[in-house]
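This is your field. Have a critical look at both lines of this record:
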Amino acid sequence: MISNVPDLKAELRRAALARRKAVGPELRTQFTARLVSEGLRLARLWQPAVVSGFHPIREEPDVLALLAALVDDGFEVALPAVTGRGNHLDFRLWRPGDPTALGPMGIPEPLASSPIAEPDLVFTPLAAFDRRGRRIGYGAGFYDRSLSRLRAQKTIHAVGVAYGVCEVAAVPYEAHDQNLDVIVTEQETLFVGER
């Protein structure tokens, strides 16, 4: 039996990512369309100055399609950039078609010359989530530190983006963990709290 929180999170992450990997192409396409629709709806509801998404890796949902739709709708968008282990993310303005470079984690990021922005609406990747708005990321803590920093400055909305198969009964909670306000899956939009 797993007794410590980091090991339990690692096991939940491993199992959720295996389930996500098995999602078929038809469902992926359906989720992309739903994510664009729901993401636009949320942005229009909250009217953020800047919306951050993420460049999908592995089998993550296609958030780039949402970012393109947001730009077409007049929103400023940004992508995260890793500034170093143990740090928060920088969010840099970006538009579809702008050049990127591979960051320290092997994920495409806006160029270092791109302006830094402080998003009000943050679409976050995750490996697993529960209905209380708790998430398990990939274990480096970048989003927890970044959401904590942004929330100390202003009101923001954090929206987790995940396939329904990534849901777990309960995510173990640690003091540094940051909850989500909303979770968008291919099946539903779950409001778990407003900040």
Q: What stands out?
A: The chain has one domain: 5-191.
